Structure formats: C-alpha cells, structure tokens
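G., the chain you wanted modeled:
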Amino acid sequence: MMNKFKLKSNVVFGYTFAVIFSLIVIGASTVIFKDIYSLFFTALIVFLFMKAKISYNNEHLVKKVRTQIRILHFNRQQLILMAVIVVMAMFIMQLILGYFLISTPVTDWMTIDTIAKNFAKDGNFDNMYVGLPEGRSHYMARYTNNNGILIMLSFYYRAIYLIFGSISTFAPVILNTVFINVSVIFTFLIAKKIFSYKGAFLTLFCCLLFLPYYTYTAYYYSDSLSIPFTVISIYFIIKGQEKIKQNKHDFHLSVIYFCISGIFIAIGFVIKGSILIILVGAVVYIFLCGNIKKTLISIVYILLSTFIFIFSINTFISSMNIVSQEELYAQKFPVQHWLMMGLNGNGGFNQKDASFTAHAGNYDQKKQANIQKIQERISSMGFDGMTKHLYRKLIYTWSDGTYYIQHHLNRLDIDGQRIEDENIFFEFVLNDGQHYEAFRTYSGVYHMCMLIAMCLSGYFYLRKKRPDKITLIHGIIFGVILFFSVWETRSRYLYNFTPLFLITAVDGIILFWNSEFFKPKQHTKAGIVHENSH
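Predicted structure as tokens:
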C-alpha cells in the first residue's frame, strides 16, 4: 500500500514538474527572445544539436561521428585528469575576472561589508555603523537574516587585519572565488554519482561555459558565499541514500552522512535562508526511496542535525551582542514583510513596501500591518489576478541569464566617483558598457538552452516509475520554484541553486541524446554518455 502511494506520488510530481517547467521555458522565451540575436543563436544551437543527434543515429555515419566525438575514447583516468585541469583553469580565470571586476559595494552588500570591516579593526560591534549613512543605523536589527554572512565576513576580515594590518579589496574576492570553485568541484562529484565520469565531465564543461561563475567572483554576498553549502549538503544526502541501498550493515554510515548534510544545510541556511528548501527536498526524497524504518530514522537524524546546528549557530550569534533585544523588538522585520513584497508588482524588492514596514511600529505592529496588507492584496487580486501575478513572478525570476549581476558591479571608487581608467571586462558586464549587448546575448542564449534542457529532463522523467537520484535534484528545484512564487524574488536569488540547474540540464541532454527520437526502428545503439542508470 505504501509503495503504491510512493509510486503514484512520484508520477504526480513528475507531471507537475514537467508542466511548470514548460511554463517557465515559454515565459522566459518571451523575454529573452526580444533580442533577435538571442533567438537566432538559441535556434542555431538547437538545430545543430538536433542535426548531430540525427547524424549519430544514422548507421552509415556512426563510425565517422564516433571518431569525431573524441570524449568516447577517453578512459576514466584521463577524464579525471582533464577535470582537474578544467577546475584549475576555471579558478585562474575566476581570480583574474574577480580582480578586474572589483567594485565598490552598494546597497545591502555595502552595509554588510562596512560593518564587517569595522569589526575587523575593533574586534567588536560597538561602532559597527561608522562610515554608513544614517538610514542604515538599524540595519542589523531589521534584517537579522544577514547575521550569518556578517559573522563570516567579520571573522575573515578580522583574521586578515590581525595578520596583515589592513584588508585588501581583493581578500573577499579570493574567499568568494574559492567558495564558487568548491561548488563546481562538488557539482562534478554529484554529477559523477548521477551519470558517469563522462556525464560528470559534460557537467563540468557546462560549468566552464557558465559566465555567472566568473562575473559573481567580485560580488561577495550571500548568494555566492552560500553556494558550496548547497552542493556539499546534497552530495552527502546522495551518499547517505546510496549506503542504505548498498549494504544494510552500513546503515550507520548513512546516518553519519545525513548528519553531515544537516550540518552544511544549517550553515548554509544561516547565510542564505532559501537553502532550507534542500532539507524539505531531502526529507521527501528519503521518504520516497527507503523502507519505513530506515526512512524514519534517516529523516529524524537529518532534521535533528540541521536544527541543532541552526540553534547552536544562532546562539553563538546572539552571544556576539550585535543588537540589543530592545532594538530588535523595535526594528526587526517579520517574515510577513517578504511575503507582502512578493505580492506587489513583479514580486521583487519594493522600496515603498520597505518604508511601510519600517514605519509600522514595533515588531508585533509590523507583523500585523504586513498581514493586513497581504490580505488586502490577495483579496484585490482574486483568483484570475493571482494566477497572472504568479506567472508574472515566474517569468521575472527565471528569464535573466545574467542573474542581475550588472546591478551590483560598478565603476565607482570608494567615494562613489566614476573611475575613468576602465578595463575591457566592465565594458562587457555593465549596462553602459560598449560590449554589454554581447554579454547579455551570450547569457540569454546559455540560460535559454539550459532551461530547454531542464525541461527535457522533466519530460523524460515521466517515463520513470521509481524515484532516483535526479528526483532529489528535481524536488529541490521544484521547491525553489514554489518558494519564490510566494517570497520576494529576483533572478539573483536563484544563484546558489545554479549547480542543480546545470546537472538537470545535462540530464536532459543525455536522455534526449540516448532516446529513440530520430532513431531508425531497426537500429539500436548504446548511449554515448550514460554508463549508469539513474
């Protein structure tokens, strides 16, 4: 009875994921394809891929095509060596881009960076708002969700200051680049478990071509500084589930892996709250894959490890006395604030909503005012209006291949003055750059191709009767879609989940390549990338 329920749940999830992602692809195309070059190059890439697929299925061309696709002739050791070279090359290029794209922090990024540097000099938060505009004087009391990244940067800066006597503008870029690169390594390791070494290398190659892993190196904020915790936690979830299936005597190892995953989820959550979606996805995945006894034990351990470490970290942060309880009660924004903003316009940040909450009174009064505003907006929209609003948010969130980076990098010096001695990289990345259109087109084409491939992954998932490792990835992405349908949103908030997007896209590419599409009925042939079934 329970197994039937699990199988039916998996089928329902598969159809839901495929339908919603089809809507995302359609919606994103209406924005990205406004640029005729994006439409042309996306169509060209799809055409060339289809042509390669047809040629590969043609018996007369099989040998010729296989000779051209050299990756088929690499053994496992060669692929590992190539992966190491690619990761090292990426790291060097990331450091170079990070150095030349160093910008003066703005908005929330500026506030956190300034407070962390003040802590580095004093070793406490007594004078944390020195050097900030007066309007930022209660920032940490209002936005306690940024406590995690503040503590991380504060201790990092403090260590650097004590060692070198000053804090280089390149120091946080190095930390950020290391974090992004670590996430690429674990993305490769996850892909190896889901596909094969060849499939993993294809995933790594996609990472190599993914520009946000370079442009974000100079933007050291919660989106990128949380990304390794996303993939490391998922890696250990997969290892834990593998141990359950492989050997009943190794169940204690699976519990250890789930606990390790919970620790990384907890750290990631304190830095970026949306990472808690992984915990929900993990619980559902473990439930669908295991027997009742082991499932319950595994779920209990991953939940306990996560929330115990969240509590421990928050207790430590409270001991730092960043803000007083009185200030916290007077200034803190309730979670309803972000739900309220998510119901306004395209669901992105809204300054009027921020001012409304700030001037609504103490914490309880803010909460009540936000709830009332939420009820008013839901009531005024009605069912049709809410449906249109949610789809508008979906398009706004998922149609930006630059991930909003051009709104944070800049050519300003520390005094806010424009730097005249510019470099070529800013000319590509910034809105007013001479080559920005080329950057936007490449980003849009890559993003659109990735979404199409992710949609293919969803379509082919419908053919599976049982959950597998890609179920976890799909489930977390589905959770991301749902979360940002109700929360305040923008494309930047998706960044720490991009490794999952790339893995899903590769899954779609592999499954389509190995599928029966355009394949003569009398001809069958093994796939070129998959060595392991999901």
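Residues 363-398 form the longest helix (36 residues).

Shout if anything looks off.
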